[in-house]
Design a protein that fits this description.
The complex is a heterodimer of chains A (about 280) and B (about 280). Chain A has about 280 residues and is mainly α. Chain A contains twelve helices and no strands. Chain A has one domain. Chain B has twelve helices and no strands. Chain B has one domain. At the A-B interface, helix 2 and helix 8 of A face helix 2 and helix 9 of B.
């Protein structure tokens, strides 16, 4: 009899978990669908990615040829670095427009989000993962193919870097979103967050290794970069996908990403809770 | 404001409305002091970090595309000074897709002034002066550290480059704005010429493969803003396709960009049907 009651209770918990998972899954699908509506925007993003990629690849390949040792890169691996970073850029939303959240905090619509029966942070995250998935297919993969056809790049031949790389990309997208989310929440305390967001975007892209690989930084700057979550957003998935780090080292990189996702996720939740207490919505 | 009696009308000169708008925009930006300060600081940091990118590469590679770090200072200084100053004046044309989508562009059409002139003078971005300040500091350093033969020719070349460079980047912004009437959703496409152009201008063009040299040397002639004058000032011969004497042709490149810009702007505004408001 007792065993039966426990079983029923367990079943109820499982049902609830399944329902919750289904809600987030639906949100992710909605995020994917919404992004897929902007076809011209996607082509525009791809085109811009490729133009920037061409200039960056030309400079980087010349730099590798000119330098005796360029951070352990050769022509193939620097190509992989350039085109993978261009490919992931859209998904990471570093350069993109501000999150919808920023406006919602500013105009008070965030109050509506608090009333919904889903977690604010996780529901936005689910939508963003869907959006990111939709940028990777039409924007990310063609960027890499374009790079392969123009400047050429070396990718690993075994399946492991790709499998681990997929996990790493997922973690990087989540981390990038959670960081932007936390930065956007500063709007609870400051009227205009534009300056802070631009600051984040500029320091972030640089420390993430978008323009120059983090491995190329002088010692002190590299230490500084690794004290921030930014290398986990871009350099980490690039290193794993391109096969620069392998085996246990690669697992270590992914573990670092997990730690940052958890830390920044918690920071976001604390900011959200504090902001919720501070929020004052007028009118009715 | 009665300095221009030739064009004065009872309500002031032709310029009065433009100046009034610009003044109000400048005051508005400074009214939220903390926000303005943080934006100025961000712009300053953008300048510094863009320079850090160049520095990190030259820290490892002593000579890239025939240029050393000192020459790179000049290259970075010229391209960023001209781009940042162009951005101060016309960078806000970037927001044209928003104006079109919200229908606010129609309000500009109602006023008896040329649309492009109104849009250009509708805002001025003071915070970007901070970015220009970093670029000017680097340029000054570059001019001091390089062995330049300071005859009248060098001074004239520098003046032509600075004025022409600002006009070239300004013209590219206008080209981009003209295309926005067709793109709307694809606004990002033109970033490849505006921001991509500024990015390409910062690089030693000698490392580009021929198609990129033609693209950024002649079609979107950003090489005239920094690379060509740099090698000309330093007395370097320059790579095939981009010989250093071309630096003297900057005015022609400027005219080409503005012809293209005004053409695209005309086609764009003719195409525009209104926001339906």
């Amino acid at each position: 009899m007792r065993g039966g009651a426990e079983g029923v209770e367990w079943l109820a918990v499982a049902m609830r978990a399944r329902r919750t998972a289904r809600v987030y899954q639906q949100l992710a699908v909605a995020g994917f669908r919404r992004q897929s509506q902007y076809k011209l925007a996607m082509f525009a993003g791809l085109f811009t990615n490729c133009v920037f990629g061409l200039v960056r690849a030309a400079v980087m390949v010349a730099a590798v040829r000119a330098a005796g040792d360029f951070g352990g890169y050769d022509e193939g691996s620097i190509g992989a670095y350039v085109w993978l970073s261009q490919a992931l850029l859209g998904a990471m939303q570093f350069m993109g427009p501000p999150l919808e959240l920023v406006d919602r905090v500013k105009n008070g619509d965030i109050a509506v989000d608090f009333l919904r029966p889903v977690d604010v942070q996780l529901s936005y995250l689910a939508t963003d993962l869907g959006r990111a998935a939709c940028t990777l297919i039409p924007r990310g993969i063609p960027s890499v193919v374009f790079g392969y056809l123009t400047f050429g790049l070396a990718m690993p031949h075994s399946p492991w870097p790709y499998l681990l790389g997929a996990i790493s990309v997922l973690l990087a997208v989540a981390l990038s979103f959670l960081s932007l989310f936390a930065v956007g929440l500063i709007g609870f305390w400051v009227v205009e967050t534009r300056g802070i967001r631009v600051l984040y975007q500029i320091c972030g892209t640089f420390l993430a290794g978008l323009f120059v690989p983090v491995h190329m930084f002088p010692e002190w700057l590299r230490t500084l970069a690794h004290a921030t979550p930014f290398p986990s957003i871009l350099q980490a998935p690039i290193d794993i996908l391109s096969g620069r780090v392998l085996d246990s080292e690669a697992i270590g990189v992914v573990a670092t990403q997990v730690v940052w996702v958890v830390l920044i996720g918690i920071a976001g939740r604390i900011l959200l809770a504090a902001g919720r207490r501070r929020l004052e919505v007028q009118g009715g | 404001m009665a300095e221009l009696p030739l064009v004065s009308t009872p309500a002031g000169t032709l310029l009065t409305p433009y100046i009034a708008v610009l003044r109000s925009r400048m005051r508005a930006q400074q009214s939220y002091r903390l926000s303005f300060a943080s934006e100025v600081f961000s712009a300053f940091l953008i300048g510094l970090i863009e320079f850090a990118e160049v520095w990190v590469i030259f820290h490892t590679v002593k000579v890239l595309g025939g240029l050393d770090l000192d020459a790179a200072l000049l290259l970075f200084g010229l391209s960023n000074t001209t781009f940042a100053l162009a951005q101060v004046m016309v960078g806000h044309l970037d927001s044209l897709p928003t104006l079109i989508r919200l229908g606010t562009l129609d309000a500009f059409h109602l006023r008896p002034q040329p649309l492009l002139l109104q849009l250009i003078t509708s805002d001025i971005s003071l915070r970007r002066l901070a970015r220009a300040a970093v670029a000017i500091a680097v340029l000054t350093l570059g001019l001091m550290r390089n062995d330049i033969d300071w005859g009248p020719a060098a001074v004239v070349l520098l003046a032509i480059t600075l004025i022409g460079g600002i006009l070239i980047f300004g013209g590219i912004f206008v080209c981009a704005a003209g295309l926005q009437f067709f793109l709307i959703d694809g606004a990002e496409l033109t970033n490849s010429f505006t921001y991509g152009g500024s990015f390409a201008a910062m690089q030693p063009a000698s490392v580009f493969p021929p198609p990129l040299k033609i693209l950024f040397g002649f079609a979107i002639p950003v090489s005239f803003t920094a690379y060509l004058p740099t090698i000309c000032l330093l007395g370097l011969p320059g790579p095939p396709l981009l010989p250093s004497w071309l630096a003297w042709w900057t005015p022609v490149a400027t005219i080409w960009v503005w012809l293209l810009a005004l053409c695209l702007w005309r086609i764009g505004t003719r195409h525009y049907q209104g926001g339906g408001g």
